[in-house]
Design goal:
The protein has 170 residues and is an all-alpha fold. The chain has helices spanning 4-33, 37-63, 85-110, 114-144, 148-159. Helix 1 packs antiparallel against helix 2 and helix 3 packs antiparallel against helix 4 (114-144). It binds magnesium ion.
């Protein structure tokens, strides 16, 4: 059994992870429409990762005999004013998700729920990586995005990314 506060927060986190998956799919679709298929590939892989995060939180609740409550997923804005905009928005979104996971961690700490803290450790590390990856992509876009040939090469590079499932086993 988990404390109700933790169950509610994890159920809310499940929705945020599915929203992240949905948001990154929207961004992938934007890049597909713009013929930047490498950027689209990068975001389609983010979509898969976020879906996997949601599934890990679902498994954690279920392994603890708790009920999963799925809520409606919000609609992404779909309005990106230029090729850089999704990158900046993705970075800001990751900061939001990090704060959300830290907030669950703080409650688990307060409740001396060491099991949940240990489970969340992987996500704390994962969020640091997510922030770093998208921040690096923003910086590289700033360096190369304005030059058509450099943008083409960056797009090729992002097109080579392959999905690898999360290392966490619940
Ligand atoms: Mg996530």
């Amino acid at each position: 059994m988990l404390d109700k506060k933790i169950v509610d927060l994890i159920n809310s986190q499940i929705n945020k992870e599915f929203y992240s998956s949905f948001l990154y799919m929207d961004m992938a679709n934007f890049y597909t429409d713009e013929s930047l298929n490498g950027f689209a590939n990068w975001f389609n892989i983010q979509t898969q990762e976020e879906y996997a995060h949601a599934m890990l939180f679902i498994q954690y609740l279920q392994l603890n005999g708790e009920k999963v409550v799925l809520e409606a997923i919000a609609k992404p804005t779909g309005a990106y004013k230029n090729h850089k905009a999704p990158l900046t928005e993705a970075y800001e979104h990751e900061l939001f998700v990090t704060k959300s996971i830290n907030d669950i961690y703080a409650v688990a700490f307060e409740l001396k729920d060491f099991k949940t803290m240990q489970f969340l450790d992987w996500f704390v590390k994962e969020q640091a990586e997510e922030e770093q990856n998208v921040d690096e992509l923003c910086k590289r876009y700033d360096l190369f995005g304005a030059d058509a040939r450099a943008l083409y090469m960056l797009d090729q590079e992002l097109g080579a990314r392959v999905y690898s499932p999360p290392s966490l086993v619940v």
